[in-house]
Predict the 3D structure of the following.
Amino acid sequence: MTKGFEATSLREIAEQLGISKAALYYHFKSKDDIVKSIVSSRSNEVAELLAWVRNQEPGPDLMECAVLRWVDSTTVDKLRGIRFVNANPAVMRNMSTNSGGDIGESLRTVAELVAGKGANPTRQLLVRMAFLSINSAVMAAGGTQCTDEEIVEASREMALAFLNRLREI
């Protein structure tokens, strides 16, 4: 769909998916419900990552394991979700306000935990950037001929570069 969230109907979404409108309505009562489902799924993933980090022993390998666990969970389908979020900030602000779960805030908490107590601001920033490498790669790839697979791989390489830099400081 290229005409945007507001201008796209459930009928058009059903057609694009190759299913009947009734079948789509069986699972989702509105377009907002579709978006909530996508956001909820990613929110659950970051909640699982946060729980996992909290159950790990602090140490030098925790940051790398956590960052790669997050980045490597990115699939081509998730890139579509990131693109949707970037293209529809007003919709996402509304979802964030009404859903109670903020993926960004949870990911910041994960980054703070793996950066270590008392981490300086530069270290904290670099850790956050490592976690957000996929978002950066998606945004930077606009207007290029990169495939989704290449974007996912580039985000992993970027995360590893941040991790290498973090080992130096």
Summary: The chain has a mean pLDDT of 88. Residues 121 and 136 are 20 Å apart (CA to CA). Residues 32-168 form one domain.
